[in-house]
Amino acid sequence: MENLFCKNTGKTLTALCVMAVNLFTGCGYNENAHVYSKVDSVQDNYVETIQSQVKADAKTNSNTATEDYLKDEEDVITDDERSTENMLKLFINDEEIQVIWEENESVEALKNLAEDKPIIIDMSMYGDFEQVGSIGQSIPSNDKQMTTSAGDIVLYSGNQLVVFYGSNSWAYTKLGHIENTSAEEMKKRLGSGDVNVTISIIE
Fold first, then answer.
1. Buried residues in 104-139 as b, exposed as e (16+ CB within 10 A)
2. Contact 137, 112 (CB under 8 A)
3. What is the pLDDT of residues 110-164, one digit of tens each?
4. Sequence spans of domains, the chain
5. Which positions fall inside the Cyclophilin-like domain (predicted)?
6. What is the secondary structure of 42-68 as a DSSP string?
7. pTM for this entry
8. Fold classified for 88-201
9. How far, CA to CA in Å, does 134 sit from each of 106, 116, 142, 149, 167?
């Protein structure tokens, strides 16, 4: 009888334990799951924050890059306008000639003179290699010994403009060079008689 009671009691306790486990499980209580849920929530919020920051930084960088590009474009336009405003034109017998001008005090002085009115110079052939004529006044010079070539434009003695269709060695201040013109073309243009040279500013 005692053994039977113990057996029944054991079964009852076992059943109660099983019920308790099922009760907790059935209610969905899971401590680890609850903790993991909180961690996942924090991670999601962190990821959303990082993504938002990345988008904001990308937008800021894009705007900055656009502003820098526009500023560079404005600087280029400004430089081009400035160089065009002060660019010299040269005519030989009323024909415009393309010249690459030097950047020095002598060329700047020519620009200043030409701003008031075009510089008109009556040229004369000399030595079968150049045309030379007076500017009408002295301008700054920085003479250096050099050997010229056809197309070179130089300042001689501070007040003489010289355009070469040949070559000569002397101390000059270089003003520029006529481009895209061969020695034969220069001789044909300048070696057949006196010419007239006009220097003016591009408007």
1. bebbebbbebbeeeebebebebeeebbbbbebeeeb
2. no
3. 999 999 999 999 999 999 999 999 999 999 999 999 999 999 999 999 999 999 9
4. 1-85, 88-201
5. 91-200
6. HHHHHHHHHHHHHHHHHHHHHHHHHHH
7. 0.60
8. Cyclophilin (2.40.100)
9. 14, 18, 17, 21, 20
